Description:
289 residues; alpha+beta; Jelly Rolls; Arc Repressor Mutant, subunit A; 2 domains; four-stranded antiparallel beta sheet; globular
Amino acid sequence: xxxxxxxxxxxxxxxxxxxxxxxxxxxxAHMAERPASxxxxxxxxxxxxxxxxxxxxxxxxxxFQSLTSSARRDFETLAHHFECRGAEVLIAEEQKPLxxxxxxxxxxxxxxxxxxxxxxLLGIARTGEILGLASAISGCPSEIRAEAKFPCKVAGLxxxxxxxxxxxxxxxxxxxxxxxxxxxARLCERLxxxxxxTSVPVRLARLLLEWCKDGQLTKNGIQIRCTLTQAEIxxxxxxxxxxxxxxxSELKSQGLLRFSGSxxxxxxxxxxxxxxxxxxxxAPDLPAA
Length: 289
C-alpha cells in the first residue's frame, strides 16, 4: 500500500515546542525554500503534546508495539497532532521527505500514478500505520501518494527528529525494520498477483485472499470490511469497474463470496484458494476457514 524532508537549519535548530506543526502536502507549502516562521498552518489547528489524553493506536501497524514508556514520552514531545479532512492529500508523489506521518485514526489510500494518469491503488493504510516511512528512511522523494479517505487523526514528526528518535530507542528501530519488511512482503504479493496472473477473476480472488489476513473469523466464514468502491478495487488489480462487477457476481453465484454493504464474507478460504489455482492448504497466518 502502501502513504517529506525536514526543514532544518544546519547551524541552529528550534526546540520542538516552538516549531510549527507539520502540514499535509496538499497545502501548497514549499517548505524547503521557506524559513520556519513562514510555514502555513494546517487546515485544522494542531494539537500539541498531550501525553495525558493520547490514545495509542492498536491497529495493524508495527511501530507502536512494545514501545517503552520512555519512548512514548519522547515521541509525544516531538509529535505534532492534527486532523485532516477526507480527500485531503497527505503525501504527494515526488514530494521530498520533510516529515513522517503516523495514522492514529482513520483510513488513507496509498496509490501511484502512471505518466498517463492511470492510478494503481496499492492498498489502504489503517490505524497504527506509518505514512511515508520508506521515503523518510531513505531520504528519497516519495514514490507514493497518500490521500485521506475519511477525516483522520495524524501525528507528524520532522524527519530528522524521527531519525534521532530511532537512534535513541532500539525497540522503535526494530519495529520500523519489521514494518518495512512487512511492507516489502505486501508489495511482492501484489506484484505476484499482477505480474503472474492474467485472468481477472483469479487476480480478484487472490486479492480477496490477501485481505483475508486482516479478516475476522465468524461462524459464516471470514468477514472482511471493505471501504473501496468497485472502481477502486479495479485499480488494485489493474482492470475496469465493469470487470470487477462481473467477477464479483460470478464469485457470488459460485458461493465463494457474499457481500452486504461494506462487508464481504468468504465462506471458505480453501474453496476460494482452489478457484484461484493456488495451494489450498491452510496457511499459519490465515483464519482457518
